[in-house]
Amino acid sequence: MKTVKLKLILSLITFLGITSFVVAQKSYNLDSKSAFSVSGTSTLHDWEMKSGSGTGLANLTIANSKLTEIESLSVTLLAENLKSEKKNMDKIAYETLKTDKNKNIKYVLKSAEKVNETTWELTGTYTIAGVSKVYKTTAKTTVTKDGLNLQGSNRITFTDFGMKSPTALLGTIKTGQDLTIKFNLNFNL
C-alpha cells in the first residue's frame, strides 16, 4: 500500500513539474515591427509624430497559445526618433520634451491584471521629459506564433509631465493640452 501511495505521489510531482516547465515564463524582446505615436491638436491642424524603433523586454507566460501572466514589461524609446512630416515641428517637439537632458521616453510596468482572454489592465510608469507618472492602460493582446502583440493608448497632457504646450509663429499657433500616446508592440523570443 505504501508503495502505491509513493508511486502516486511521485507521479503527481513529476506531472506538476512537467506542467510547470510547459508554462514556464520566458523573456521576450521588442522587435522592429513595433510602432509608437503621439498625436494632438493645434489651432492650425491636428498632428502626429511616429516612431518604429524602440527597445524593450517582457517576461511573459504563454500557455496553450494564451497569455496567462505578464510578470514584467519595459520599453525605452529615443525621444528624437519620434518624427512628424515637418522638421520645424520636430525641433519644437524636442525642445518641449527637453531632449538635451532627457534622451529617452520610458515605460515600466508595475502590475498587470487580466480582464479577459485578450484584454489586460496594465499599471505602469511613463517617464517623459524627465518626469515620471503612473497611468492605467487597457491593452489588447494577441498571442502570435513568435510571441505577443500588445496594443493600447493613453491620454496625457503636457502639464502631467512638466511641459508647456508648444507654440509657433510668435504664439499665433498653439498646441492643445491633450495628447494621445498609442503603441503597437511586438514581443518575440
Shape, principal axes of CA atoms? elongated
Low-confidence runs of at least 5 consecutive residues: 18-22
Q: What count of helical segments does DSSP give?
A: 2
Identify the strand order in the major beta sheet. Answer: 1-4-5-6-7-8-9-11
How confident is the prediction overall: mean pLDDT? 88
DSSP strand tally: 11
Query: What characterizes the major β-sheet?
Result: 8 strands, antiparallel, barrel
Structural class: alpha+beta
Radius of gyration: 22 Å
Measured between the Cα atoms of the first and last residue, the distance is 47 Å
Percentage of helical residues?
10-25%
Which range does the strand content fall in?
Answer: over 45%
Which series of helices and strands comes N to C? HEEEEEHEEEEEE
Note down, in words, how this protein is organized.
A hairpin with a 4-residue loop joins strand 10 and strand 11 (173-188). 16% of the residues lie in helices and 54% in strands. It has helices spanning 2-22, 87-96; strands at 26-30, 35-42, 47-51, 55-63, 66-78, 104-114, 119-128, 131-143, 147-157, 167-168, 173-188. The model is unreliable at 18-22 (pLDDT under 50). The chain contains 2 helices and 11 strands. The chain is elongated. The protein has an 8-stranded antiparallel barrel with strand order 1-4-5-6-7-8-9-11. It has 189 residues and is of the alpha+beta class.
Brief sketch in words of this structure:
This protein has 189 residues and is α+β, with helices and mostly antiparallel strands. 16% of the residues lie in helices and 54% in strands.
